[in-house]
Task: structure prediction
Amino acid sequence: MVEVHEDLIVELQDATQTFGVVRALDGVSIKVGKGEFVGLAGENGAGKSTVLSVLSGLIRPDAGTIRLRGHEVPQRDWSFHKANLAGVFRIYQEQALLPNLSVYENMYLGHENLFSRAGTINRRRMRALARQHMEEFVGRSIDPGALVGGLSWGERQLVEIVRAFAIASLLEIRSPLILLDEPTAAMTHDDLEAFYSLLGRMRTQATFEEASFLLVSHRLDEVLRLSDRVYVMKDGRVVDEVTDTGSVDEADLHAAMVGRARAHNYYCEDRQRSSFGRESIQLRNLSVKNAFQDVSFEVHEGEIVGVGGVTGSGKSELGRALAGLSPIDSGTLGIHGHDVTNSSVGERIGKGIGYVPLDRHSEGIILYLPIDLNMTLSALRQSATTGRFILSRTKERATATQAMKRFAIRAPNCTVKPADLSGGNQQKVVMARSLVADSTVLILDHPTRGVDAGAKHEIYQLLRDLADRGVAIIMITDELPELIGLSNRIVVMRGGVVTQETLSPAGAKPSEEDIVKALV
Amino acid sequence: MTNSHVSTPVDRSSERPPEHAAISSRASRLPRPAVRQLVPYAALVALLAFFTTQSANFLTVTNILVMAQSASILMVIALGATLVVVAGSVDLSVGAVATIVGVLAAHLSQQGHTSSIWLLVLVGALCGLVNGILVAYVRLPSFLVTLGTMFIFGGIAAKITGGYFVSLNYPSLSEAVNGKPIGQIPAGLLWMVVAIAVSAFLAYRTVFGRRVYAIGGNEKVAKLAGQPVERTKVWMFVFSGLLAGFGGLMLVARAGGSSPDMGEPFLLTAIAAIVMGGTSLNGGVGGPARTIVGVVIIEVLTNGLIIIGADPYYQNIALGSVIICAVIVTIKRSEMAAIK
Result:
């Protein structure tokens, strides 16, 4: 597996970068050989993305050198576009495609001059070339003339990566360096497989056998599976280098990242409850057109029910319907014996439903509203006012400070804006909002998405705490270990219907294979 | 930290450009946010210092009271529109609402129906209600709704007067706006203080105000948190209309009568004051306290240029330049909000 490459494509030496008082990079040296796939692992804030930013020309390090194919890069003259022209491409987690342009226009964005003669762009050639590359790598499923805005998230990620190769080919660069920045963070299970097989095809493709990849990802299994070599970063430094990725497992990698072994009890299975209180939420033959049909189950006080399924299984739609975001077409929904089938979002919150949405930034949190104001938003009258109409800042701050303590949210104080927090802390703020509103039924859609390994464990502990306090929890997730490890009971959905309901007691957890069978 | 990992933009409508690029390169060149927030105040101090050195008549009690009286109408109208802007919407009809109320007041006074003139502020609120319903429940963009109602209200006002100047014949309104109820304190200053108190209280100390900020920050989150987004929007347009209507009454009293385009200049000046103060047009940040600064800057500039005897034509040029300079600062801030 491991090849020693004499000729390096890129070599970063002793890079140091400070942002204010934070030392993001502290003498980092990294090498990537031609044709090599290198992983970068580390917790949030370890400096992984900063390394990519330095290599892709977005930031100039305070100190250190970059050598590209043996030549030192002149720092003053290094920019994102220059990096592109030199064959360094960065694939973003939050894609950098324009939704109002077509696939082929996006693919050659910024390089139109290579298609132009006397100021007019030869669109036909551009389109034909784009089609050729798309068919080569992803088949005919994506039409180069289609608008990017109409593609699914996974499809767009494929476009973005093919674009790097298309431009490299256009510029006749045989050894491009592709920087992958959390490319799969928002991907669902089926998108993932398509993505991995695309990477596989790219690495074996003759024209680009010298193409190299540098991957930053939270998914440790993926880092190990894809990489020939892995650098482990911590606090702005490279603390370890794994040269034999076949003989190392996720737990080892995690231990190196955090500087300690992953808690044996990652999902706090020892705290899993076996006895529950009364029935909290009851779904009876619930249907929403074009999303899911005839879903029935109930959750009791202190119970965690996991809902699994692939994209299109209707599991996220179920969560939205329970929260009151889409009207229920038939069936009934009961909370503590009250019928809330036709209730509004606000009425359901009043009855005890709390919802933590899938997309934190667009639906979960107000990035520029201070933490305390974010926390009290669902229960202004209970947590932040004296009387019905007048806000009490004292009361609000007290509520928020208490919630911050209970949720171990790391911020200097409760008036900090969530935009300055890490993903894990932001997610805790969203969860705290439901708790401030005294939710007794919590519906979480992918509660640990985009959250680093350490913060994940903290969220699992929080969920156990909540269960101990009698909160009924519905957890919708793609991550099988999480689904199995955390749940008392697992509901699997496929094509909008429940295909399996499995008990998942501590000590006798079902295997991933058991669940996968019902998933697909 | 560059490494704060953000998750899951599955919403296809909200594409974001590469954030690291935008922020890291810009953050290094611009002052820190806390410093930037002070820029409107710094601009104000600079203007005050400049005019004070240029004319001995500028920083006097008399002139300060003149400025207060002169700024009061703009202040009332701009404060009303501020909450709408904080919510991420815009109210382009404030000038037309002021006009329609002023015109009706003059018209009614000519017919002797003076007792109902104070109730005309409710016409302003009604205009706001129309805006609010169209924006919140018919779900039309506020820019287009209020652009349309701006023409409609303006047209109605012109129709009522037939385009002529109608003088106001209601001494008690004139006295209430132009008089000096307490010593040398002009009535305009008192009305202004009332408007500031009410709008600041609403914005900073009530559930309603909090909802407005939440909607401006992220409407989806506000909705998911169970907040009555539509109702809140209607009320904030009603408030904007109410204050614009009151501004109209002040305006007709100040001018001694009504003309069909009397409110027009106040629309863009009000928006300028709001944005200059630091309320982002993207919503979610800013508020009445910042609008006060914006209005004061505009008044100081206008008044100061007159006092030092500058060519009146330069007034607009200076005003425009100050607006752009002030906005450069606030736009950076709002861009951050849009990108991050």
